[in-house]
Amino acid sequence: NAGVTQTPKFQVLKTGQSMTLQCAQDMNHNSMYWYRQDPGMGLRLIYYSASEGTTDKGEVPNGYNVSRLNKREFSLRLESAAPSQTSVYFCASTGGGGTDTQYFGPGTRLTVL
Amino acid sequence: DAKTTQPTSMDCAEGRAANLPCNHSTISGNEYVYWYRQIHSQGPQYIIHGLKNNETNEMASLIITEDRKSSTLILPHATLRDTAVYYCIVRPYTGGFKTIFGAGTRLFVKA
Protein backbone atom coordinates (compact mmCIF):
# COMPACT_ATOMS: atom_id res chain seq x y z
CA ASN A 1 0.00 0.00 0.00
CA ALA A 2 1.97 2.98 -1.30
CA GLY A 3 -0.65 5.62 -0.42
CA VAL A 4 -0.35 8.68 -2.68
CA THR A 5 2.47 8.72 -5.21
CA GLN A 6 3.62 11.60 -7.40
CA THR A 7 5.90 11.80 -10.42
CA PRO A 8 8.27 13.37 -11.12
CA LYS A 9 9.91 14.37 -7.84
CA PHE A 10 11.81 17.26 -9.44
CA GLN A 11 11.42 19.13 -12.72
CA VAL A 12 13.01 22.16 -14.33
CA LEU A 13 11.19 23.82 -17.21
CA LYS A 14 11.82 26.81 -19.43
CA THR A 15 9.16 29.48 -19.73
CA GLY A 16 6.52 28.40 -22.22
CA GLN A 17 7.17 24.68 -21.95
CA SER A 18 4.40 22.31 -20.98
CA MET A 19 4.34 19.33 -18.66
CA THR A 20 2.01 17.03 -16.76
CA LEU A 21 2.36 16.13 -13.11
CA GLN A 22 1.09 12.68 -12.29
CA CYS A 23 -0.63 11.54 -9.11
CA ALA A 24 -1.98 8.14 -8.16
CA GLN A 25 -3.51 6.68 -5.00
CA ASP A 26 -4.10 3.06 -4.10
CA MET A 27 -6.51 3.61 -1.19
CA ASN A 28 -9.69 3.47 -3.31
CA HIS A 29 -10.40 7.09 -2.40
CA ASN A 30 -13.13 9.04 -4.14
CA SER A 31 -11.72 12.56 -3.92
CA MET A 32 -8.38 13.90 -5.07
CA TYR A 33 -6.74 17.32 -4.85
CA TRP A 34 -3.86 19.37 -6.22
CA TYR A 35 -2.17 22.02 -4.07
CA ARG A 36 0.79 24.29 -4.57
CA GLN A 37 3.06 25.58 -1.83
CA ASP A 38 5.29 28.59 -2.32
CA PRO A 39 8.28 29.19 -0.02
CA GLY A 40 7.23 30.06 3.53
CA MET A 41 3.55 29.79 2.68
CA GLY A 42 0.73 27.41 3.41
CA LEU A 43 -0.78 25.16 0.76
CA ARG A 44 -3.24 26.60 -1.74
CA LEU A 45 -5.82 24.48 -3.55
CA ILE A 46 -5.51 24.50 -7.35
CA TYR A 47 -8.14 21.96 -8.43
CA TYR A 48 -9.97 19.08 -6.88
CA SER A 49 -12.02 16.12 -8.03
CA ALA A 50 -14.80 15.12 -5.66
CA SER A 51 -15.36 11.87 -7.54
CA GLU A 52 -14.36 10.12 -10.75
CA GLY A 53 -15.54 12.14 -13.72
CA THR A 54 -15.80 15.49 -11.93
CA THR A 55 -13.34 18.32 -11.41
CA ASP A 56 -13.69 21.76 -9.82
CA LYS A 57 -11.57 24.85 -9.45
CA GLY A 58 -9.94 25.69 -6.19
CA GLU A 59 -8.38 28.91 -5.00
CA VAL A 60 -5.67 29.32 -7.68
CA PRO A 61 -6.67 27.47 -10.90
CA ASN A 62 -5.36 29.91 -13.52
CA GLY A 63 -2.66 28.43 -15.74
CA TYR A 64 -3.53 24.82 -14.89
CA ASN A 65 -5.72 22.04 -16.21
CA VAL A 66 -6.56 18.72 -14.61
CA SER A 67 -7.76 15.30 -15.67
CA ARG A 68 -9.31 12.65 -13.45
CA LEU A 69 -8.22 9.74 -15.60
CA ASN A 70 -9.87 7.11 -13.43
CA LYS A 71 -10.52 6.61 -9.75
CA ARG A 72 -6.82 6.13 -9.01
CA GLU A 73 -5.22 8.89 -11.07
CA PHE A 74 -5.46 12.67 -11.13
CA SER A 75 -3.07 14.65 -13.32
CA LEU A 76 -2.18 18.35 -13.36
CA ARG A 77 -1.07 19.99 -16.60
CA LEU A 78 0.79 23.22 -17.16
CA GLU A 79 0.21 24.18 -20.80
CA SER A 80 2.64 27.11 -20.91
CA ALA A 81 4.78 27.29 -17.81
CA ALA A 82 5.61 30.66 -16.25
CA PRO A 83 8.18 31.54 -13.56
CA SER A 84 5.29 32.33 -11.21
CA GLN A 85 4.45 28.63 -11.28
CA THR A 86 7.72 27.73 -9.60
CA SER A 87 6.51 25.92 -6.52
CA VAL A 88 6.13 22.59 -4.76
CA TYR A 89 3.04 20.72 -5.90
CA PHE A 90 1.25 18.29 -3.61
CA CYS A 91 -1.44 15.81 -4.49
CA ALA A 92 -3.85 14.52 -1.84
CA SER A 93 -6.80 12.18 -1.61
CA THR A 94 -9.71 11.52 0.74
CA GLY A 95 -12.10 8.64 1.01
CA GLY A 96 -15.23 10.67 1.54
CA GLY A 97 -17.47 9.98 4.51
CA GLY A 98 -15.77 8.62 7.60
CA THR A 99 -13.07 10.97 8.79
CA ASP A 100 -12.53 12.33 5.28
CA THR A 101 -8.89 12.75 6.25
CA GLN A 102 -6.57 14.00 3.54
CA TYR A 103 -3.52 11.91 2.70
CA PHE A 104 -0.74 13.73 0.88
CA GLY A 105 1.89 12.65 -1.59
CA PRO A 106 5.60 13.55 -1.26
CA GLY A 107 5.41 16.50 -3.64
CA THR A 108 6.88 17.58 -6.97
CA ARG A 109 9.40 20.42 -6.90
CA LEU A 110 9.01 22.47 -10.07
CA THR A 111 11.28 25.28 -11.19
CA VAL A 112 10.39 27.40 -14.20
CA LEU A 113 13.25 29.44 -15.60
CA ASP B 1 -15.12 29.11 6.19
CA ALA B 2 -13.66 29.93 9.58
CA LYS B 3 -10.20 31.39 9.75
CA THR B 4 -7.65 30.32 12.28
CA THR B 5 -4.94 32.23 14.10
CA GLN B 6 -1.77 30.52 15.27
CA PRO B 7 1.53 31.80 16.66
CA THR B 8 4.23 32.03 14.04
CA SER B 9 6.73 29.94 15.96
CA MET B 10 7.28 28.15 19.27
CA ASP B 11 10.13 26.39 21.03
CA CYS B 12 9.92 23.29 23.16
CA ALA B 13 12.51 21.26 25.06
CA GLU B 14 12.88 17.65 24.07
CA GLY B 15 10.89 15.36 26.36
CA ARG B 16 8.55 18.12 27.49
CA ALA B 17 4.97 18.63 26.38
CA ALA B 18 4.44 20.93 23.42
CA ASN B 19 1.21 22.92 23.61
CA LEU B 20 0.23 24.55 20.33
CA PRO B 21 -2.69 27.01 20.51
CA CYS B 22 -5.16 27.88 17.79
CA ASN B 23 -7.83 30.54 17.75
CA HIS B 24 -10.93 29.94 15.61
CA SER B 25 -13.44 32.36 17.04
CA THR B 26 -15.71 32.31 13.96
CA ILE B 27 -16.07 28.52 13.76
CA SER B 28 -19.49 27.28 12.64
CA GLY B 29 -21.50 24.57 14.31
CA ASN B 30 -20.80 22.00 11.59
CA GLU B 31 -17.06 22.66 11.38
CA TYR B 32 -14.45 20.40 12.85
CA VAL B 33 -10.97 21.31 14.04
CA TYR B 34 -8.23 19.41 12.20
CA TRP B 35 -4.51 19.43 12.85
CA TYR B 36 -1.84 18.53 10.32
CA ARG B 37 1.90 18.89 10.38
CA GLN B 38 4.54 19.24 7.68
CA ILE B 39 8.04 18.07 8.33
CA HIS B 40 10.74 19.72 6.23
CA SER B 41 8.76 20.23 3.01
CA GLN B 42 7.31 16.72 2.99
CA GLY B 43 3.61 16.32 2.31
CA PRO B 44 1.40 17.34 5.24
CA GLN B 45 0.54 14.58 7.69
CA TYR B 46 -2.78 14.26 9.49
CA ILE B 47 -2.53 14.34 13.28
CA ILE B 48 -5.97 14.54 14.86
CA HIS B 49 -9.39 16.13 14.57
CA GLY B 50 -12.38 16.89 16.82
CA LEU B 51 -15.74 18.60 17.00
CA LYS B 52 -16.30 19.62 20.61
CA ASN B 53 -14.97 16.87 22.83
CA ASN B 54 -11.36 16.40 23.70
CA GLU B 55 -9.65 13.78 21.57
CA THR B 56 -6.53 11.66 21.98
CA ASN B 57 -4.69 9.31 19.69
CA GLU B 58 -1.23 7.81 19.52
CA MET B 59 0.26 11.03 18.23
CA ALA B 60 -1.36 13.81 20.23
CA SER B 61 -4.25 15.17 22.27
CA LEU B 62 -6.67 17.86 21.16
CA ILE B 63 -8.32 20.11 23.71
CA ILE B 64 -11.24 22.21 22.45
CA THR B 65 -12.71 24.92 24.66
CA GLU B 66 -16.36 24.66 25.60
CA ASP B 67 -17.31 27.61 23.38
CA ARG B 68 -15.23 26.02 20.55
CA LYS B 69 -13.50 29.31 19.82
CA SER B 70 -10.05 27.96 20.48
CA SER B 71 -8.15 24.70 20.78
CA THR B 72 -4.77 23.34 21.83
CA LEU B 73 -2.79 20.54 20.29
CA ILE B 74 -0.66 18.73 22.83
CA LEU B 75 2.33 16.59 21.96
CA PRO B 76 2.91 14.94 25.32
CA HIS B 77 6.63 14.15 25.03
CA ALA B 78 8.12 16.12 22.17
CA THR B 79 11.10 14.67 20.31
CA LEU B 80 13.46 16.26 17.82
CA ARG B 81 11.48 14.54 15.05
CA ASP B 82 8.44 16.61 16.03
CA THR B 83 10.13 19.74 14.70
CA ALA B 84 7.72 20.79 11.95
CA VAL B 85 5.11 23.30 10.86
CA TYR B 86 1.76 22.59 12.51
CA TYR B 87 -1.45 23.63 10.79
CA CYS B 88 -4.76 24.18 12.55
CA ILE B 89 -7.69 23.95 10.12
CA VAL B 90 -11.44 24.23 10.57
CA ARG B 91 -13.77 22.77 7.98
CA PRO B 92 -16.91 20.71 7.56
CA TYR B 93 -16.55 16.99 8.25
CA THR B 94 -16.73 15.91 4.62
CA GLY B 95 -15.39 19.10 3.11
CA GLY B 96 -11.91 18.06 2.09
CA PHE B 97 -11.89 20.68 -0.62
CA LYS B 98 -12.51 23.30 2.03
CA THR B 99 -9.27 22.54 3.82
CA ILE B 100 -7.51 25.90 3.97
CA PHE B 101 -3.91 25.90 5.10
CA GLY B 102 -2.67 29.08 6.72
CA ALA B 103 0.95 29.75 7.62
CA GLY B 104 0.84 27.44 10.65
CA THR B 105 3.11 27.36 13.70
CA ARG B 106 6.73 26.42 13.26
CA LEU B 107 7.63 24.26 16.26
CA PHE B 108 11.31 23.88 17.14
CA VAL B 109 12.08 21.03 19.52
CA LYS B 110 15.48 21.57 21.11
CA ALA B 111 17.75 19.04 22.79
Short summary of the structure?
The complex is a heterodimer of chains A (113) and B (111). Chain A has strands at 4-7, 10-13, 19-25, 31-37, 43-49, 56-57, 65-68, 74-78, 87-94, 103-104, 108-112.
Q: Can you tell me about this structure?
A:
The complex is a heterodimer of chains A (113) and B (111). Chain A has 113 residues and is mostly beta strands. Helices cover 0% and strands 49% of the residues of chain A. Chain A contains no helices and eleven strands. In chain A, strand 4 (31-37) and strand 5 form a beta hairpin. Chain B contains no helices and nine strands. Chain B has strands at 9-13, 18-23, 31-38, 45-50, 55-56, 61-64, 70-75, 84-92, 105-110. A five-stranded mixed beta sheet of chain B has the order 1-9-8-3-4, with no helix packed on it. In chain B, strands 2-7-6-5 form a four-stranded antiparallel beta sheet, with no helix packed on it. Chain B is globular. The N and C termini of chain B lie far apart (38 Å). At the A-B interface, strand 4, strand 5, strand 9 and strand 10 of A face strand 4 of B.
List keywords for this structure.
heterodimer, A: 113 residues, mainly beta, 7-stranded mixed sheet, 4-stranded antiparallel sheet, 0% helix, 49% strand, globular, B: 111 residues, 5-stranded mixed sheet, 9 strands
